[in-house]
Amino acid sequence: MQKYSVFSLIKNALTNHQNWDVVWRDPEPKKEYEAIIIGGGGHGLATAFYLAKYYNMKNIAILEKGWIGGGNVARNTTILRSNYMHDANSLFYDHGMQMWKDLSQELNYNVMYSPRGILNLAHSDAQLNAYARRGNSMRLNGIDVSLIGREEVKKMIPFADFTSNARFPIFGGLLQPIGGTARHDAVAWGYARAADDMGVDIIQHCEVNGFDIENGKLTGVQTSRGNIKTKKVGLCVAGSTSLLAEKLNMNLPMEAHVLQACVSEPVKPLLDGVVTFGAGHFYCSQSDKGEMVMGGDLDGYNSYAQRGNLPTIQHVLTEGVALFPNLSRLKILRTWGGVMDMSMDGSPIIDKTHIEGVYLNCGWCYGGFKATPVSGLTFAHTIANDTPHDLSIPFRLDRFNTGHLLDEKGLGTKTWIS
Amino acid sequence: MLEIRCPYCGNRSQNEFAYGGDATIKRPELNTEVTDQEWDNFVYYRKNPRGNHLELWHHISGCRQWFKVHRNTATHEILKTLEMKENL
Amino acid sequence: MSQDFRINNCGLINRDKEIIFIFNGKKYTGYKGDTLASALLANGIHLIARSFKYHRPRGIIAAGVEDANGKVQLYKNDTTEPNVNVTEVELVEGLRIESQNCWPSVSFDVGAINNLLNRFFPAGFYYKTFMWPKSFWYKVYEPFIRKAAGMGKASLDPDPDRYEHRYEHCDILVVGSGPSGISSALAAAKNGAQVILAEDKPRFGGSLLTDNITIGNKNGDEWVNDAIAELRSMPNVIVRGRSQVFGYYDHNMLVMFERCKDHLGNPEIFTPRQRLWYIRAKQVIISTGSIERPLVFGNNDRPGIMLASSAKEYLKIYGVLVGKKPIIFTNNDTAYETAIEFKNKGIDSIVVDTREASNAGIVNEAKKLGIEIKFSHAIANTSGYKKVSSATIGKLNKTKDGFESLSELKCDCICVSGNWTPTVHLASQSGNKLKYDSNLDTFLPDQSRQEETVIGSANGTFTLKKSLEEGFNTGFKLSNEITNNNNRVPIPISDEKEYGEHDKFWCMPLPDKKHYKRFVDFQNDVAVSDIQLAVREGFRSIEHVKRYTTLGMATDQGKTSNLNGLQLVSDIEKKIVPEVGHTTFRPPYTSVTIGTIIGREVGKNYRATRKSPIHNWHEKNNGVFVDAGLWLRPRYYKQGDETLHEASKREALNVRKNVGVCDVTSLGKIDIKGKDSAEFLNRVYTNAFLKLPVGKARYGVMLREDGMVFDDGTTTRISENHFHMTTTTAQAANVLSHLEYYLQIVWPELDVNVTSTTEQWAGAAIAGPKSRLLLGKLFPNEDVSTEGLPFMGYREFKFKNTIARVFRISFSGELAYEINIMSDFGEMMWEEIVKAGQEFNIQAYGTEALSTLRIEMGHVAGSEIDGRTIAYDLSLEGMLSKKKDFIGKRSLSRQAFMNEGREKIVGVVPLDKKTSIPEGSYIVKDPNAKLPNPKLGHVSASCWSVEYDNPFSLAIIKDGKNKKGEKLYAVSPLKNKTIPVEIVSQHYVDPEGKRVRS
Asked: How would you write the pLDDT of chain A (418 residues) with one tens digit per residue?
């Protein structure tokens, strides 16, 4: 692989950038692979990368029905955090946070990991106490986080509504300093380039239409570009998981919902870290380009359309202005939607299935982006060893039977309520 | 914003309604033997189709009736709305 | 400078009204009817802004929303707004604008060093570097990049303006008032349809205002004025200018913003700044016209280089010459109109045309006028740092991949035309899969998915005659389907110039050994070389190219650049354009002010505030309020300098000693009637309700189907088939929906009706050993003895002229009653209670004392019933009937729920009896254990026990059943606290429950 660095950049500048290699090949599918990953999103690309890197599987293909990095990794609000209450979640996501630190170097691709902090605002003492429960749990798990008061919040975001006009005044917040953002496209491309370098075939515009199963064992997949033999297949198709599962005669504890996000026009630096509003569901950060990146509730009905409707955006922005009254005079530049795998307890599923050789990675709800490295790592482990990684044991599918649920919000099975 | 025909009130905008999810799941009868799998299917497992979906909506800012909507999850097109006692 | 570029006897502006504005600290004048752009150009100002990445000098390139460069910081009165398009702001008094993204000034910008170094900053350079040393990205490089990012500055102040929403239904919404839009609106309106005609610009007419045409015997603007006047006079038509339809959503819901205020010199005080329209239309006619494409050539971004049609618009509408020595550079015939308009005003231009020839009528007319035309020529490069001053032009070779000769041509502006792009955004948002038209080199609408029809140049119809036909015919046809009327309007005769074929060549070659930047996306500085690099590196999908290069991602969202970009990708890849595809058109079509989207739900109006009918009394008596969902509840009543802690202690202690009164209006109340009500409740609650006697209340617990505790409360049998249910404040709405779900869907055979009566009843809890005495005084004629009104009893007592519902129920654990009365009497009742209670030392108590009382009694509330606990965890397993089935029961046999060592609620007391345990602490065995330190459970609620005068907490901990008496630690690392504690019973006070029964 051609090494990226400031030196290679200067060298190539002198030859007018004519000599850069392609970032990844565009191979024809082979007849057989050791393992196939379906879905060229962040998780699929990361899984293939770690399979090749740590589990010595080189004859791997990623099959992507469209263009890689085009699903939810292209549509999220790029937030990284591990501020969860349940041990299973916080330990899992925090392992991911540690992986983010080294990812640019590991991939030789600047994914712009940026720990500028994530601040969850509280609007009552009761909410501060609920955050204390979460924060203490994190601290006991060794994760840095602190509870800060109204005055400290005011220093960080002085333009938030600290007047008596605020409907829900700010009491304080939970601050995870290591939280932040990364450049979403770069994550997909960095993993793709590094995986390709290790021999992984990235095959775009190749849709999986069916599975070949003999005696409960996987033998291959049927694709729009022909049948391909394989003994292992990993599904990394958040947003379409139920559709592929149907081809395996599986129902899943999951619904597809559309989540919208929007950006404002770029403005000079205003907000450094990520801030969430506690009296509703609104989160906001400012991109390196200067756009305010904002999101909130689901549109609230099953949907596979990557489009939403305006009332949800109206609702999200109403909360945004309740928090930051000065946002009112900014302009929204673009809105978009992505399809979420909303699992019935709000936590992901990483597991084998009843079909030998078929593995599931799904149910990320709206939290999948930050998990990209750790999801790839643990899923690669699961595929390679046919047994879960220690970190992903709690994310097995059978928890919906045993009752070991991971419900951070306590809302139960109404996935559309956020 | 979706426009939904409440079978009792007529066409109204979506913001008068609350969503209720899959309308095809049926609660097992009370006081009957139910296997774990049947129960889990009722509580957690969903068909989740891309395409036509029979689902529940609740006219909470209206007549407060629950009813069924046959809607395409890929296009959001509503094919039909039905009272609870009606079937497709 | 005083409008040196304004010419007389031309344009639609009002020259009697001169308006002063300030640009970068200097005063200029324009006229009423100008935009900031036209006024700047009238003063000869082209350098307006700096580009995003290279800080190159930039000027206005268009006259409408498609402009990519002319963004400024706008100041008016005390407000400011970033990234304002000078082409969209109407000139009024008091405007001050400043160039943005430049320092110290737009003419000398230090950031322009980026331009000198641009070879080191190709597309995506940041992905390839800034990786070493490791932490330098976020410690050094990124902060630096972030500082440089953004364009204008956001205001830090709240927005002083107000915004409104309006909802409309109509038969036909017509978007755009060009020839096809106006004619379709006329045809539909005259055929009886309810029509809304929306136009983005302040002036109606679109191309009719600038094209040299006639309709009937009128010129364009006369015909437009008459048609708009006629439409405005019709009661079935709404005509709105300054109104941008920006989103086409599901079920034919379109959204439009109307600019109501900023263009007014002296707006009235309540004039909203903008109004958002939600329009549900039966049919939508999209007549949004088309946008001219730039040509791509060396240094094609200099100030003074603009679209030919825009130059014509500045001339014809505003009487402004964009230059006095123009070059017209085109690959098609439409730009010749601009040359002719210049000629008519005495300005000689040179036309540089990439085509070998054209025989179109308009070209011949230009020739006749003596306009110099250079066919087979192209511009290779331009010069002039702050404004274009010359062009290097050359004869194209046969294959058009190089120049045969080059020469310099002086100029002060270049008007370019690379043909036209239909504005298909709304159709695409609606779900229309676009098709590529290889004759027009553009995407056109294909099959409609919703009820939309695209006409005029948005549909690729580029002649006036056909646009009018499409307009009148479509307007008639769609209205006829709705109204069944048959009133057809005759299509007027029109006259227009004749145009021929355009050249499919639009990206000029570079002269040998030259590496001029040829820009495709101006604002984001995306050049041909960037797109070539992206494709060379393997970013083949148009979405990859867009994301890698940032093509089309600037504030203009690629209105002038997208098609050129994807044509370029298809040329490089040697594919046809439809194979490359296009990026998705997302709403909004143009950027929309956030305040407009929100409307009136700002400040205190963000959410409704619910107040009990007793609220005024609480206010008058120094109640300090707390938000409980939407409700405002008194948290405590402050006396003197008391703190929250002191006041709540005093209030709680008074309940334990004497009697207190608490406003419990916000509790959810549901009236349940029907002959199967008892059976229904028996299924909803985990405990038995069938045999609840009339006149008795019972505490009940309900579960979700997944087995988690959902809510609790008391339900009272008022008569055989009539029950009164109470819920927690938080779950009131959810419980009602839950009940309706089961009644309407699961058990429709049950004869039960439910309705919320929360607002109907005001509620006061009177609690404490003296509460019976107080009750007796309030109702002197009633039997309030423990026989007359036993524990969990219910009576209706006459109170003044109404009936009070009296429940002997208790949350505080003391002898207590809850009195409900019709809301209108709430305040009166409360005052009577307080008056009667004086002799018993009554005090009002707030939610904080209420919490204290319930915590030390070990009663669970919202912090325990958090949607993640089962009945066992809360020691409510005794409430689970073994004899009957109920909602959620089947889930309780899950393995994890049966686990012997499961969490259970306990009481926690600090060993020193002094240190309060913060809520959200955890109970651990060893506070110094290695992290992750295993947790036994968490502290859900804490109080200062007024009974024992020491801290007491509730916790839910693993194997809580067997932990009583154990010495453990409560830790709150967040608050740096480690507190040795003893585990005790959750029922700290009166564990036998004697007091409530006394």
From this structure: 889 999 999 999 998 899 999 999 999 999 999 999 999 999 999 999 999 999 999 899 999 999 999 999 999 999 999 999 999 999 999 999 999 999 999 999 999 999 999 999 999 999 999 999 999 999 999 999 999 999 999 999 999 999 999 999 999 999 999 999 999 999 999 999 999 999 999 999 999 999 999 999 999 999 999 999 999 999 999 999 999 999 999 999 999 999 999 999 999 999 999 999 999 999 999 999 999 999 999 999 999 998 999 999 999 999 999 999 999 999 999 999 999 999 999 999 999 999 999 999 999 999 999 999 999 999 999 999 999 999 999 999 999 999 999 999 999 999 888 6
Q: Which of A193, A293, A110 is nearest to C149 (CA)?
A: A293
| In a shared domain, residues A144 and A231 | no
Q: Which of C125, C151, C931 sits opposite A141 (nearest CB)?
A: C931
ipTM metric: 0.98
The DSSP letter of residue C48 is -
Q: Residue C571 to residues C207, C441, C740: CA-CA distances in angstroms?
A: 31, 13, 62
d(CA C629, CA C795): 31
- Answer yes or no: do C746 and B27 touch at CB < 8 A: yes
Please check whether residue A34 is in contact with residue A10, taking contact to mean a CB–CB distance below 8 angstroms. no
Residue C696 pairs in a beta bridge with C793
Interface test with A, best of C974, C978, C979 (most A CBs within 10 A): C974
Distance CA C231, CA C194 (A): 11
**Same-domain check for residues A397 and A350:** yes
My answer on whether A175 and A261 are in the same domain is yes
Within 8 A by CB and 6+ apart from C567, the residues are C441, C506, C507, C577
- Tell me if chain B has a CB within 8 Å of the CB of A256: yes
Give backbone dihedrals phi and psi of C682, rounded to 5 degrees, phi first.
Answer: -65, -25
Other Cβ atoms within 10 Å of A217 Cβ, number: 12
User: C669-757+871-892 has which fold?
Assistant: Alpha-Beta Plaits (3.30.70)
Q: Where are the alpha helices (DSSP H) in C44-131?
A: 113-116, 125-128
Minimal C-alpha gap between B40 and chain C (Å): 8
Indicate the pairing of strand C372-375 with strand C377-383: unpaired
Fold for C903-998, please state it.
Elongation Factor Tu (Ef-tu); domain 3 (2.40.30)
* Terminal Cα distance for chain C, rounded: 94
CB neighbours of A82 closer than 8 A, spacing ≥ 6?
A: A89, A90, A93, A94, A96, A97, A138, A143, A176, A178, A179, A370
Q: Are residues A281 and A310 in the same domain?
A: yes
Tell me which chain C residues have a C-beta less than 8 angstroms from the C-beta of B30: 683, 885
Longest dimension (CA), chain A: 68
Task: Check CB contact of B14 with chain A, cutoff 8 Å.
Answer: yes
Q: Which residues contact C470 (CB under 8 A, 6 or more apart)?
A: C180, C184, C455, C456, C459, C461
Q: Hey, is A113 helix, strand or coil?
A: coil
**Cα three-residue angle C824-C826-C832, rounded to 5 degrees:** 130
Q: How far is C886 from chain B (nearest CA, A)?
A: 7
Strands A233-235 and A35-38: parallel
β-pair type (A146-149, A180-181): unpaired
H-run or E-run covering A151: helix A150-156
Of A212, A216, A208, nearest to A355 by C-alpha is A216
- Angle between the C826-837 and C771-778 helix axes, to the nearest 10 degrees? 120
The encoded tokens of residue C319 equal: 């009487």
Buried b / exposed e across C284-315, counting CB within 10 Å, b at 16+?
bbbbbbbbbbbbbbbbbbbbbbbbbbbbbbbb
User: Taking the model in full, what pTM does it have?
Assistant: 0.96
